[in-house]
Amino acid sequence: MVIRQILHYPDPRLRRVAEAVERVDDEIRALIDDLADTMYQAPGIGLAAPQINVAKRIIVIDTSSTKSELLVLVNPEIIDRQGEQTLEEGCLSVPGIYDTVTRAERIKVRALDRHGKLFELETSELLATCIQHEIDHLEGKLFVDYLSRLKQQRIRKKMQKQDRLAM
Ligand code: GNR
Ligand code: NI
């Protein structure tokens, strides 16, 4: 078990565009395990490598109620999107903040699994939103970017104060 530290908004390291994984080897699998351990411990339903300060295109997700269905996506790509849905989101990098975001309702995603095998997944509802939220992290994007400038300003101040007090 390796629990890694999760970066908090407005840390500029969350803004980097992550690099594609060239080969899914043991080192990448160890990183996937750390991501999963850190996600479950938080607890959260998803985590992207940039959130633990690793600029690689890797995400883990588990939206099951039993926390027993780990989904690993390496180099994920959304190849089809349909409709719109608005759900309330939170983010482990913006703790304590929740707000609604409108995203595609149904997506088809292509990715590599933990063995480097290509697979495709068609999904909707919370899992579709979560995958889009995590892929945004790989692009240096956060859910707060979809909120008004005023809300973003308030959130930034609140987070800076929280993290100052925590130090
Ligand atoms: O734990 C999380 N919950 C969540 C709820 C609604 C939409 C997206 C998410 S992802 C978030 C964990 C996280 O920050 N992943 O990047
Ligand atoms: Ni997040």
What does this structure look like?
The two termini are about 25 Å apart. With about 170 residues, the chain is of the alpha+beta class. The protein has a single domain, classed as Peptide deformylase (Peptide Deformylase, Alpha-Beta Complex), CATH 3.90.45. Strands 1-2-3-6-7 form a 5-stranded antiparallel β-sheet. The chain has a two-stranded antiparallel sheet with strand order 4-5. The model has no long low-confidence stretch (mean pLDDT about 95). It contains 3 helices and 7 strands; from the N terminus they run αβββββββαα. β6 and β7 form a beta hairpin. The protein binds ligand GNR and nickel (II) ion (NI). The site of ligand GNR has 16 residues, from β1 and α2. The site of nickel (II) ion (NI) has 5 residues, from α2.
Q: Would you summarize the structure shown here?
A:
With about 170 residues, the protein is α+β, with helices and mostly antiparallel strands. About 30% of the residues lie in helices and about 25% in strands.
Number of strands: 7
Supply the CATH superfamily name: Peptide deformylase
Task: State the oligomer.
Answer: single chain
- Secondary-structure element string: HEEEEEEEHH
CATH class annotation: Alpha Beta
Q: Supply Rg.
A: 15 Å
Globular, elongated, flat, extended or rod-shaped: what is the shape? globular
Strand content: 25-35%
| Amino-to-carboxy terminus distance | 25 Å
Structural class, from helix and strand content? alpha+beta
Outline the low-pLDDT stretches: none
Proportion of residues in helical segments: 25-40%
Mean pLDDT: 97
